[in-house]
Design a protein that fits this description.
- Helices cover 40% and strands 17% of the residues.
- By secondary structure, it is α+β, with helices and mostly antiparallel strands.
- It has one domain.
- The chain has a two-stranded parallel sheet with strand order 1-2.
- α1 links the parallel β1 and β2.
Length: 52
């Protein structure tokens, strides 16, 4: 299981591109979207979201 937390947002193809690479390398992977709306470069916010 892979938890996917990013600052990519959901308005473009970046999340799908990363998932395509993951599934290409490991077709049986289970990817869980945590959030893709973290403020860009905000490590503290990402830590908070991950801890909840």
């Amino acid at each position: 299981m892979i938890g996917f937390l990013s600052d990519f947002g959901t308005r473009d193809y970046y999340v799908a591109a990363v998932k395509a690479v993951i599934y290409g390398m490991c077709p049986d992977a289970e990817v869980v979207d945590i959030s893709h709306e973290v403020t860009p470069w905000s490590i503290q916010e990402a830590c908070y979201v991950l801890s909840c």
